């Protein structure tokens, strides 16, 4: 890996972590519950992007499965939380 | 060319550019999530991360793993396919939940379509 790509991956990871920090601030502050669910969904997506960037950083294809699982778990948890906000119970 | 030649620099340059662009897009999405005033306008910002940034990272990953001489590495498309199926479902369910909760707490949402008296638009 060339120094250029290594630097680019490092800067990208820093930007991701900054974005996650802002999303975490929204998660902590969020005036209503749906703001918190939205911030959690955003954190899942950024975590998936971090996994894909780490796959390039460590030159390994194993991170792909982790990123795919992260997408699926993020979807399930966000839909379950939104359903809970809508009905008061997840499975009815 | 022996086994230990460095990577072709064109693929690495494309990968670096796409990664940096996705980092900036994600930062814009986070700033929108923080700065926008209302929940329903705040819902628009994370879609930027789950569409454009995910596409950019996918293209970066394809550009990186495909220029190593092992042929095309297209399995990262699967993430984009799954994400473009699941992200609208999450958005719709969350918007309905937010609408229900706001109406339940007494707000009259959505606002009427005709412009208000004295509205400057």
Calculate the mean pLDDT score of chain B and round it. 84
Helical fraction of chain B: 55-70%
Class by SSE composition of chain A: mainly alpha
Q: How large is the radius of gyration of chain B?
A: 21 Å
Structural class call of chain B reads mainly alpha
Number of domains of chain B: 1
Taking all Cα atoms into account, the compactness measure Rg of chain A is: 16 Å
- Count of helices of chain B? 4
Strand content of chain B: under 5%
Poorly predicted spans of chain B = none
Through-space gap between termini of chain B: 67 Å
Low-confidence sequence ranges of chain A: none
Could you tell me how far the N terminus lies from the C terminus of chain A, measured between alpha carbons in angstroms? Answer: 52 Å
Provide the succession of SSEs of chain A.
HHH
Residue share in helices of chain A? over 70%
* Number of helical segments with 4 or more residues of chain A: 3
Query: What sort of overall outline of chain A do the alpha carbons produce when their principal axes are compared?
Result: elongated
> What pair of chains forms the biggest interface?
A-B, 51 and 53 residues
Number of domains of chain A: 1
Give the biggest sheet of chain B. none
Q: Give the H and E element order of chain B.
A: HHHH
